[in-house]
Predict the 3D structure of the following.
Amino acid sequence: MRRQRERTSGFTLLEIVAVAAIVAMLAAVLLPLAPRGTSRQRLAAYAVEAAALLKADRTAAVRRNAQVSAQIDAPGRMIRSGSTGRVLQIPGDVAFQALLPLTCNERPARSTISFFATGMSCGGTIVLSRLGTGFEVRVNWLTGGIEVAARNAPST
């Protein structure tokens, strides 16, 4: 009786291989369906990169003693540095909005955030959001200071 119980307890190699095959098939079917979009951490990194690009333009304006303007292309989902030409491309799964002044220094702003030799700016806000979370990159119009702030994205 004891020998018979020892033989039937546990799993056979065939049973373990069958379960592993079923798990592998389920993984092969379900993994491609899992969303692979921009994570919250990567979204924050995009906001910090945008702020760094704008800070570099502000610093360049003060050093050169001349106006430097960053190009903001919301439909094209990109930000181009006015001092280095560096481009930050925002992925398609991230909502991208730019709230910019219509005029800057009595001239049309044309989708730019401009920095002057004094460090001042005409200001603007860039909003990056995805799945209920977001970040604002704010440029103060008076001081030219740049900050990144977390925000709740509007529900769609």
In short: The first strand starts at residue 68 and ends at 73. The CA atoms of residues 99 and 125 lie 5 Å apart. The mean pLDDT is 87.
